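BUG-238 | component: ligand-complex export | severity: low

The export step for zinc ion jobs runs without errors, but we want the raw record kept on the ticket for reference. Input record follows.
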Amino acid sequence: MLRFMPLAARRILDLVLPRACALCGSVLAPCRAYPLCEACDAKLPRISARSERRCERCGKELISERALCLRCRSSGYHFDSAYPLYAYRGIAKELIVGYKLRNRRSLDVFLAEEAAKAAIEYFPGALLVPVPPRPGKLRRKGWDQVEAIARIMERRYGIRVRRILARRGRALEQKNLDFSARAANMRACMRVCGKVEASARYLVLDDVFTTGATLSACALALKTAGAARVDALVLAAD
Ligand SMILES: [Zn+2]
Ligand SMILES: [Zn+2]
């Protein structure tokens, strides 16, 4: 709970026990709300919302394409749009890998702030739906990284969260499947476990957009249950 301490206490503690940036290890300026230095923050490859080099559908950075990326021309996603905060490379990749795989849990405050700002600006009033963890993940890791971010978005930023998606059964290992096989696999194991309001706009939250099969399955489940519009917010897209 040290992350949420009052500013004065944070300042004193930072002077006694300076914290290090989770990425570069440099000593943090006192009172940073999260363990990331200003230099690393500035280097994050943020994808600008207004960039013409952003795919109109999945939000990933376009290289030589126009309007839609090659993946979106053939994938037939069920979500209406996806909004990644960063391109999944360089320091953004280090940040997310550090958070997810190296258990740098204190980065959740930073990631939640970034995600909350985007949700409030680009999806005002939307109900946030965290993607549920794969079976066994909680047991292996002991915590759910997407839920941790959703909880801070809810408590600190007042974003309404609806935990209405659940997985059923055990999905096949996805790594070696192509998009259509992944999509069919995911469709079979995602279900709605709460009430869907037809007039609400839903915003599915996940960490990394790779093929988009999980987000697409979430959107399909919500739409089948009556949601008219489903967008996606992700930390990064590769
Ligand atoms: Zn740093
Ligand atoms: Zn795209």
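Assignee comment: Attached the raw record above. Residues 108-122 form the longest helix (15 residues).
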